[in-house]
Write a structure and sequence with these properties.
With 311 residues, this protein is mainly alpha-helical. It has helices spanning 3-30, 34-38, 45-54, 61-73, 87-92, 95-122, 127-141, 144-158, 170-200, 203-210, 215-226, 228-240, 247-252, 258-267, 271-299, 301-310. It folds into two domains: 1-89 and 260-311, no CATH class; 95-256, Orthogonal Bundle (MetI-like fold). The protein is flat and about 85 Å long. It starts with a helix and ends with a helix.
Length: 311
């Protein structure tokens, strides 16, 4: 892999992070004074001025921005208004819970989506194919909050077989992981099916079938690798959304992760925490996109060749 490719992707990633940091910094401060929401209405003006000076909110906006960037370069993400501790520590304490939920749903949705998409493509027009298509439409169109509430009503309140909220055992993970994974599994199944159908109709696949190559060999050796590029795009987006995609589900199931923390921090105007989470989400998306680009070049060397010709 050429150094120019890595340099270009790194510069694009840094630019994305810079734009994300700038956008959220400006928007949060233009929305109003966070101290007015954090402090009681009857707080004396001198107390408000004291906290405004303490958090640097008394300085002009450009100066606040430059000081914030300087702090980021030194690993200082600011202090949480609510927790009275470094914002980075507050966010990092929630990462294990979010990663547990996100990775579990990612693995489940990937396995179900890939298998369902491949089987549907191999049995095109059958009842299995129609069932996979229906599942894909259901998963893509069903709002996660509605599915989560419906599962709570059935499994927690009616049948009482699963806990409705919190994090304490494997049983607490079942409903949030399923709710988060249904939409992903539907999208992966749909893209896998479409890509597999396109590959199965290629001349080399028909030739392999005419030569009597076993179905498993044709599918695993020839069809799946050539159909992987569109699927890798979906998987990359899913991986990049491990943090941002859990906001609604964590709120519905009171899962103590970053998503729930973001909702709380936005409601309380905890600027440093919100900014730190946005940076983390942007960084995750940048890394995921970089991984997808690398996977493209590994799966299809022609992409690398095209890039060299273009340069």
């Amino acid at each position: 892999m050429s150094p120019g490719f890595l340099t270009l992707k790194l510069l694009r990633g840094l630019l994305t992070l810079f734009l994300a940091v700038t956008f959220v910094f400006v928007i949060l401060r233009l929305a109003g004074d966070p101290l007015r929401l954090m402090l009681p209405d009857d707080t004396p003006p001198d107390v408000i001025d004291h906290y405004r000076q303490l958090y640097g909110l008394d300085r002009p906006l450009p100066e606040q921005y430059l000081r914030y960037l300087q702090g980021l370069m030194q690993g200082d993400f600011g202090y949480s208004f609510r927790d009275r501790q470094p914002a980075l520590d507050t966010v990092l304490s929630r990462i294990p819970a979010t990663l547990l939920l996100g990775l579990t749903s990612f693995v489940v949705s990937t396995l179900i989506g890939l298998v369902a998409g491949i089987v549907a493509a191999l049995r095109r027009g059958s009842l299995v194919d129609q069932a996979v298509i229906s599942f894909s439409i259901f998963g893509h169109s069903m709002p996660s909050f509605f599915l989560g509430i419906l599962m709570i009503l059935l499994f927690a309140m009616t049948w009482r077989i699963l806990p409705s909220a919190g994090m304490g055992s494997a049983a607490h993970l079942v409903m949030p992981a399923i709710t988060l994974g249904v939409g992903g599994a539907g999208a992966i199944a749909r893209f896998t099916r479409s890509s597999m159908l396109e590959v199965l109709n290629q001349p080399y696949m028909k030739t392999a079938r005419a030569k009597g190559v076993p179905v498993a060999t044709r599918v695993l050796r020839d069809a799946v690798p050539n159909a992987a590029i569109p699927v890798v795009t979906v998987l990359g987006l899913r991986m990049g959304g491990l943090i941002s995609g859990t906001v609604v589900v964590e709120t519905v199931f009171a899962w103590p992760g970053i998503g729930q923390l973001l909702v709380t921090a936005v409601g309380q105007r905890d600027l440093a925490v919100v900014q730190t989470i946005v940076i983390l989400v942007a960084l995750t998306m940048v890394v995921a996109n970089f991984a997808v680009d690398v996977a493209y070049r590994w799966l299809d060397p022609r992409i690398a060749g095209a890039g060299k010709e273009a340069t």
